Amino acid sequence: MGSKEFILKHSLGVRIFHYILVVSFVPLAFTGIVLYFKPYDELTMNLYMRIHVILGIVLTLDAIAFFLVGFERVVTFVKRMFTFFGDDVRWFTILGGYPQKFLLRKKVPVPPMGKYNSGQKVFGICVVVGGTILIVTGWALWAFPHILPVGMVLLFGNLHMIFGWILSIFLLVHIFLGIYMFDDFKAMFLHGMIPYGEAEETAPKWVKTELVKIENHV
Amino acid sequence: MKKQTYQYAESPFNMSRREFITIGGIVIALLALPAVWIRSGIAKRNSYIRARTKGLYTDDTQSKVRVSHGNTAVSKMYTDFAQHPLSEISEELFHTHHYINRRAA
Asked: Has residue A1 got a pLDDT over 50?
């Protein structure tokens, strides 16, 4: 296969959703951590809370818009995230070969993966489930604490904190591996395309079963 | 500068209609369930207050004496000992001039 051939991995709609997700979630995680530790005076903490709320609204609108406009993409994503095979178990036993690569400078054979590898699937599940919980609990805690039962507000507060921490920690790993897989990084942030050869190596199942050859597109 | 092009894309037929409807339905149902749960939680949020109120009204209906000034023990105390409310002896014994400031504690 020629090395100059490309695959459209992330469509424009997905990329726009991801851009807004980046500009909203990264500062949301930061302000959330500041709000958790409360290191500043009351006035500054109020400012952080306002920023957190405004970005939360942006994130919610982004998620709702993508859910409505790209429902087919949401369904496809959910299917991919929640479908596990024997290869995924084998992938986890060697953690995708990343520790060997980073720590021992050794390349080990990795089981063939689909569009997303097993680690990305776990991250995807956390994003879908945790993101939904964060949005729902965030709105409940900000806008409706007075009409909710006390126990529910307490539960929502704890869930918001727990999933906020989980996604914030996952975010660091996601950013690191996202930049490490630089072709994928460029695809998500620039043109949406990855080289065919790269995809064949990292996602052979996807290349083999889910792609179609098309006429040249700009 | 030459624009980069792509020669491959995901097939739009990777998922059957049945699969799409099933997964889409599950996603929507899972999103709707918490909404139902929250709504029922809101509807029931003051149930313990209502139960307490109902209990108090039941107690009130069943009580022989329903007003504080009709309390026979208190009336007897005033008749035999403290004369009448706000009398000198009542003021001295029942009125206090100190209180715990819980906010300052």
From this structure: no
Find the CATH number of the domain harbouring B69.
Answer: 4.10.260.20
Query: Number of residue pairs across A and B with CB atoms under 8 Å?
Result: 81
CB A24 within 8 A of CB A51: no
Candidates B2, B4, B6, partner chain A, best to mutate (most A CBs within 10 A): B6
Nearest to B5 among A76, A140, A218 (CB): A218
Domain boundaries, chain A: 6-210
Model ipTM?
0.80
Instruction: Determine, yes or no, domain membership for B1.
Output: no
Instruction: Identify the domain containing residue B36 by its residue range.
Output: 16-63
| A6-210 placed in CATH 1.20.950.20 | yes
pLDDT at residue A216, as a whole number = 57
Query: pLDDT per residue over A134-158, tens digit each?
Result: 999 999 999 999 999 889 999 999 9
Amino acid identity of residue A148, one-letter, is L
**Section B24-50 average pLDDT:** 90
Contact in structure between B15 and A76 (CB atoms under 8 Å): yes
Distance CA A115, CA B10 (A): 10
